[in-house]
Amino acid sequence: METLALILAGGRGSRLDLLSEKRVKPAVPFAGKYRIIDFTLSNCSNSGIYDVGILTQYLPLSLNEHIGVGKPWDFDRRDTRLTLLQPYKDWYAGTADAVLQNIEVIKRTSAKYILILSGDHIYKMDYRKMIAHHVAKNADLTVAVQPVPWEDTDRFGILTTDSETRITKFREKPKDADSNLASMGIYVFNKAMLIEALETIKEPDLDFGKHIIPTLLKNREVFAYVFDDYWKDVGTYDAYLEANLELTSTVDKIPLDMYDRQWRVFTKSEEMPSVKVGSKAVINQALISNGSIIAGEVYRSVLSPGVIVHPGAVVRNSVILNDSEIMPGAVIDYAIIDKNVTVDFNAKIGYGDDYSANKEKPDLLSSGINVIGKGVHVPEDTIIERNCRIFSTATFSSKTIKTGTTLK
After folding, report:
1. For 159-178, how does the pLDDT look when each residue is reduced to its tens digit (9 = 90+)?
2. What is the model's pLDDT at position 203?
3. Predicted local distance difference test score (pLDDT) of residue 13
4. How far is CA 99 from CA 121, 183, 314, in A?
5. Are residues 98 and 10 in contact, defined by beta-carbon separation less than 8 angstroms?
6. Residue 75: which domain range?
7. Residues 107, 205, 87, 70, CA torsion sign
8. What CATH number is given to the structural domain containing 402?
9. Whether residue 287 is found in the same domain as residue 231
10. What pLDDT score was predicted for residue 21?
11. What's the pLDDT tens digit per position in 228-286?
C-alpha cells in the first residue's frame, strides 16, 4: 500500500456543546442513520485506501463502538489494517502533536505517502486524485483547499498560490485576506518529509496550520489541491442543523448526493424494522430512518432510527436523534433533539417571536434553535421558547422556559 491515512478524531467539538457532552464530535449522528466520521471513512474505502489509523482522545467509547473492526467500510479484510490510536503519555496538544505522538506508526509503515484527514467534516472526495496531483507536482506537501465566500475568510487558514498551484503564502484567519482559498485540513506528505518536520519543528502545541505549513513554505515544495465540491464543517449548531436540513431538499437541489451508488457512504447500521407510516400521517420533505414510526406530521426534518411521532404531534425544521418519542399534541419547531428524549403531551419546543440569544452561550445560540440533551423528559404542557439549552441532567421547575435559558 502506497498511502497511510491518519484520521484526527479526538476533538471535543466544544461548539457543538450538548451534542458533544457525552461523545466526541466525529461520533455525533448526522443525516439520520450516519455518524460524522462515516464520511471520511467512506472516502478512504471508496478511494482504495485501506491502511488507516484513527487518532482518538476525548470520550472515545462511542466512537470506538461505532467503528469496531471497520467491517461496514470493508476494513476487516486480510489485506487491510485499521488501528485506533489513543494518547499514551500526554493529551494531544495540537493536530501535528497528535501525529507526532504516533510517529512510530509512520516510521514502521512501508507507505510512501501519509494522508492526514479530519474526522469531523461532511464531504465526498476521491483522495486518489489529490495524491496524483501531489505526485505530478513532485511536492513535499500538498494541502487541500476550497474557495470560500470572502466574508468568511477570517474563519479559516487562507492560502495564496501561483499559476502552478504552488503555495506562496499562508495566513491563519486573516482580517484582510488577499485570497479566498481556505485550507480544508487535509494534507498529503511524503513520508520522510513528515517525519523530518515533526522531529525538527519544536513547539509545545505543534499544529499543522500554525507551525508545519508556515515552516515548510520557506524552503520546501508545497502545493495546493483545489476541491470545489461540497464540503462542510458542521461544528456549530447552525451549521449542523442547516447541513442536515439541506439533505431534505428535492433531488435536483440536494447539495450532497447521498444516493450515488458509485460512491456510497457506509455506516454501522442497527438491525431495525422498516419505517412505519400511519394512516393519518403527513410527511413532507423529510429523511426518515429505519425503525421509525410516523403517525403525526413531519415537515422538513431529519429523524434518526427508532424515532416515534405520535398522532397529533408536529415536527418542523428539526433534527431528532435515535429512539426519541414525540407524544400526541407536542409541537417541535427548529430544534435539535438528542437520543432517548421524550417530549410529553402538548409540549411545545420552539415557541414565540422572542429570538434573544442564549444568555450563557450567546455565541452558540442566537438564531432560534433549541437544543435538548440526551435522555431529557420534557414534561407535558411545557413551553420552551427559543435559543434554549436543556442539558441531560436538567430539572423542569416551570411550565414555561423563557428564550435564552439554560437548564442544567
Report:
1. 999 999 999 999 988 989 99
2. 92
3. 64
4. 19, 18, 47
5. yes
6. 3-245
7. negative
8. 2.160.10.10
9. no
10. 87
11. 999 998 989 999 999 999 999 876 677 898 989 999 999 998 889 999 999 999 999 99
List the Cα angle 70/288/390 in 5-degree steps. 85
Mark whether 106 and 166 lie in a shared domain: yes
> CA–CA separation, 99 vs 185, rounded Å?
14
- How many domains is the chain built from? 2
Do residues 219 and 294 both lie within one domain?
no
Which of 104, 260, 113, 266 has the alpha carbon at shortest distance from 193?
113
| Same domain (yes/no): 111, 176 | yes
pLDDT in tens, 369-388: 999 999 999 999 999 999 99
In 204-321, alpha helices (H): 213-216, 237-246
Using 70 as the pLDDT threshold, list the residues of the chain that sit under it.
1, 12-13, 251-252
Cβ(35)–Cβ(49) below 8 Å: no
**Burial class of 214 by CB neighbour count within 10 A (0 to 12, 13 to 18, 19+):** middle
Q: Based on the fold, state whether residues 176 and 291 are members of the same structural domain.
A: no
One domain, residues 36 and 110: yes
Pair (238, 116) in one structural domain: yes
Residue 169 CA neighbour count, 13 Å, CB half: 11
* Residue 49, helix vs strand vs coil: coil
Amino acid found at 369: I
User: 321 and 237 in one domain?
Assistant: no
- What CA–CA distance (Å, rounded) separates 378 from 341? 8
**How many Cβ atoms sit within 10 Å of the Cβ of residue 124?**
18
Task: Annotate 144-158 with b (16+ C-beta within 10 A) or e (fewer).
Answer: bbbebeeeebeebbb
So what's the pLDDT on residue 86?
87
For 68, phi then psi, to 5°, come to 55, -130
